[in-house]
Amino acid sequence: MKNKKIGIMGGTFDPIHTGHLVVANEVLNFYGLEEIIFIPAGDPPHKKGTMAGSFDRYIMTEMAVLSNHKFKVSDIEIKKEGKSYTLNTLTELTEKYPDAEFYFITGTDAVIELPSWREPQEVLKLCRFVAVSRPGISMDEAAVKISEINKMYNSSIELFQAPMLKISSTDIRQRFKTGKSAKYLLPESVEQYIIKNNLYGSNDLR
Ligand code: NAP
Known about the structure:
Elements: E1 4-11, H1 18-31, E2 35-40, H2 54-65, E3 71-73, H3 86-96, E4 100-107, H4 108-112, H5 120-126, E5 128-132, H6 139-153, E6 158-160, H7 169-178, H8 188-196
Parallel strand pairs: 1-2, 1-4, 2-3, 4-5, 5-6
Bound molecules: NADP nicotinamide-adenine-dinucleotide phosphate.
Residues 9-12, 19-20, 23, 41, 44-46, 84-87, 105-107, 109-110, 113, 117-118, 132, 134, 168-170 line the site of NADP nicotinamide-adenine-dinucleotide phosphate.
């Protein structure tokens, strides 16, 4: 009998922003989760590279969740050599927390790519999958794609309508690069960390 509900917030977090934090809080409330573990992806299998290194993304994630005792951060993916696969991460977490039911939370655009992940069928057996709506993809469009995936794997991925904060890591990186303010889109501590460490070409903002 699984008696602990744990959310797993998977993403690159390059950088983490207020949109991620709001989504996590909404999912926590809606499903009555005990806690959410943010897991910054180390070396995402499907990407050529991230803009900030895994250590910086991990530190920024730690800073962002500091004030919420229900939000934790795991370095399980960033400390691994080589590619990080969700299957391996969930298998490890299942061993570590045998009593937990996991809710894997990520953006719909990542979920739509699920068929290209390593052993999606097995991944879906290890957790409840929550696809969070993102600005730019309509709920109808996302619902159609997710229902196709559910048919393909006989799964029950759930589509979660989060408050549509139009915040994206891509836009935030672009702002730092072009010297525009990203204030209030991300925690102030994370903003300061980015500027202090010249991440995303933020030199002009000092
Ligand atoms: P990503 O690039 O970080 O994000 C994809 C989209 O989802 C972006 O629009 C992003 O917005 C949004 N997003 C990211 N994390 C979110 C979250 N937790 N809640 C709501 N929206 C979120 O994501 P990714 O790197 O493709 O991967 C997401 C997760 O899937 C990671 O845990 C990754 O390890 C896993 N994954 C596994 C495999 C595999 O095992 N083979 C393959 C692909 C992905 P922002 O840009 O604003 O963050």
